[in-house]
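Q: Give me the 3D complex with 1-O-phosphono-alpha-D-glucopyranose.
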Amino acid sequence: MTQRAGRQVVRKAVVPAAGFGTRFLPATKAMPKEMLPVVDKPAIQYVVEEAVVAGLDDVLFITGRNKRALEDHFDRNFELEEVLRIKGDDERLTMVTAASDLARIHYVRQGEPLGLGHAVLMAENHVGDEPFAVLLGDDLIDPRDPVLVRMLQVRAECGGSVICLMAVPRASISLYGCPAVVETGSGDVVIVTDLIEKPDVAEAPSSFAVIGRYVLDPAVFEVLRATKPGRGGEIQLTDALRVLAQMPEDAGGGVRGVVFGGRRYDTGDRVSYLQSVIQMACERPDLGPELRTWLKEFAAELP
Ligand code: G1P
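A: Here is the predicted complex, encoded as structure tokens.
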């Protein structure tokens, strides 16, 4: 174990939510895409629930202009609560208060949308000199496969930073960050030696995609401050991780990957979003049976 490993418990989660959500316009004209419902909950609530289950009850949202809906969602709504209380609708009352009671939520604005790396840098003041997690709202992880918990274990054992990797068809690697890895011989953990943001298929160093869960050493902040705009003219978190992967461990460097084979739902574009909603609804005990029956009939009649 390195000196830095296990020294500090991870308590804080950072959730970037400042994107324009252009792929979902006009739905995202006046509200962040993170508020789009996945079945009957905003996508962002699943992400906050995942952080809380992993023991991170301090959540910082990096927001843009549309933060109002987020703030309202994670705040109390006394009028609505009163109406439900008078009606005796305890079930819905619990649902409504659940979001506001989840975690200590904080907000900081990104100002200019200069990329994911820049968004993470905005968290520096709040996070300070502690390791922290970053959760991206486009990736929803099934609560039955708690990969963040596993990543936190790896950070506690090894120090450095930990990223989440999934094997994907090679043809889709250019949608993701892609690492070069070395096996450690210990099951699901690999050592990351290099990373490229959204490489062409021919240049991809592996078939692993970086999924939107990160446990980062605070050394990332200094690296991000020096990171120049990369792919798409944006300051990329992947580029900072590349530097961390090559830095000595006693300076906060070292990047490991946890290879995740569980259930992940992608809400990042319209088709995968619709697929995720259908998949998740099919698994719900209250909606699944009716929906599955209908879906089979519907699918049988498709041209
Ligand atoms: C971001 C990261 C990318 C990662 C992806 C995971 O890209 O830059 O490295 O693979 O999230 O969802 P985005 O999808 O925001 O363009």
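A quick observation: The chain has two domains: 12-268, 269-303.
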